[in-house]
Every structure is written in structure tokens, then in C-alpha cells.
Amino acid sequence: MHSLLALSRLIDAVNARMGQAASWLVLVVVLISAGNAVVRKAFDISSNGFLEIQWYLFSAVFLLAAAYTLQKNEHIRIDLLASKLSKRGQAIIDIIGTLLFLMPVCIILIMYGWPLFEKAWVSGEMSSDAGGLIRWPVFLLIPVGFSLLLAQGLSEVIKRVAFLQGLIADPSEKNTDVHKEPV
């Protein structure tokens, strides 16, 4: 189990860095959006490329930060049932939900997203809008983002199994180092 916890720590570290990097993209999107609005209003000049890069970057923020959001236990939950269960019961529900729902969906989206990226890469697909951008970078975000989410799902399963075995603290608690032994 200790090697699996080491893998979990590695996955957590990678996704923490990706989440932090994605958060900086929000600032980039705001600056591009504001710059585009100023140039459009002041000089009556606009570019579809500026509009497209905004949605490319928004897609990057969403897809690259999803795993980080899962890691921080900030994803949306419906705790109607789970809130009535013990911490062990909640961990079991998290394991089952991750294995039966999250991971299969990630695998399917990776399997369907990779060919989209390959086709756009090989063909050099461009936006049909005048001044539009190449499409492969945004298509690459799909398999990359869901691969990160799949890996984080694996990390969460490892942590919850370790919690159930009494090896680590409750991974659903915020602001704790879950990889430390419980008190």
C-alpha cells in the first residue's frame, strides 16, 4: 500500500501544479477579453482569433482544473444520503462512485477525444471563421484533461482505501495532509 500512496502523492502533486497553472489562465483570459474589448471600442478593430483564444483558454481552465478540484474535494456533491453516513460509509460511497461512474466516463472521453485531436493535428484543421485559430490544441485538452481527472480518481480511491485501512487521515477533510498517518 505504501507504493500506492507514493503514486497517489505523485498524482496529487502533478494535479496541484496543473490546477495552479490553470488558475493563472483565468487572468490571461481576462486580459485578452479586456484588451479585445478596448481595441474593438477604441479602434473599431476585432479579431475572431481573440474570441476563439478566450474559449480555448476557458476550456483549458475547466479541463485542466477538474482534477485539482476533485483533489481538493470541491466538486459538487449531493450529500443528502452521504451526510447521514459515517466517514467510513462516505469513503465507501466515494470509492464506488469513482470506480463505477467517474473512471468509466473519463476512459470513454479519452478514447473518443484522442481521435478528434489526431484528426485535427494531421489535417491541420482550422476554424472556419476568418482569422480563426488552429483547432488541435483545444481538441488535445479533452484527452489530457480527462487523463488528469482519471489519474486523480485513482489517487482518491487509493487514499480512501488507505483511510479505511487506518493508514491515513480522512481524505475528505479539508486543510489536512491526508498522506500523514491518522492521529
Automatic annotation (TrEMBL):
Q: Where in the cell is it found?
A: Cell inner membrane
InterPro entries from the UniProt entry: DctQ (IPR055348), TRAP_DctQ (IPR007387)
Q: What is its main location?
A: membrane
Q: Kindly give the Pfam families that the UniProt entry links to this protein.
A: DctQ (PF04290)
What job does this protein perform?
A: Part of the tripartite ATP-independent periplasmic (TRAP) transport system.
- Subunit structure, as described in the record: The complex comprises the extracytoplasmic solute receptor protein and the two transmembrane proteins.
Which family is this sequence assigned to? Belongs to the TRAP transporter small permease family.
Instruction: List the protein's name.
Output: TRAP transporter small permease protein
Species in which this protein is naturally found: Vogesella aquatica
